[in-house]
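Data card: per-record layout.
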Amino acid sequence: MVVVQRIAFSFLAVTALIVALTVRAETASAPIPDFAPGQEWSIKSASPTTAKVIIGRVEPWRDRVSVNVSIVDIPIPQGNPGAGGVTQIAHIPFDKTALAASVDRLIATGVSPAPSFESGYKQWQDAKGGIFTISVEKAIELMFQTINRRQG
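The structure for this 152-residue chain is written out next.
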């Protein structure tokens, strides 16, 4: 039986990572999908993953388009609390181009984002937060690195 564990992860901690990042997602030559709220996408990953992206909001952000998503069913790697289970990121904003380069295929429509999506979205708005220009896979990796640093 797989135990589902949710790791409390502050959007503000994620936002702090944005400032430190210099890595930019490579843009794919494929056309950029027409993202819409309620879409569920599989992600591109170096190894098989159950992680999926659910679109919550799509909106202008400065001179870009922000796609605010939940990432669900993230496998918790060995060496982390709850290893073998799954977790989620309730709200994380991506640049549309970076997200387009990260998703693989549309799985479903009419899917609700994580229950805490709206509170995370509001926190992001209130903080006048940035958006990720890295891949979804890299954002997940950075989340676990941050958690491990806090525990170490």
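Known properties of this structure: Residues 1-8, 10-28 have pLDDT under 50 and may be disordered. Strands lie at 40-43, 52-61, 64-75, 86-95, 103-108.

See the next section for split statistics.
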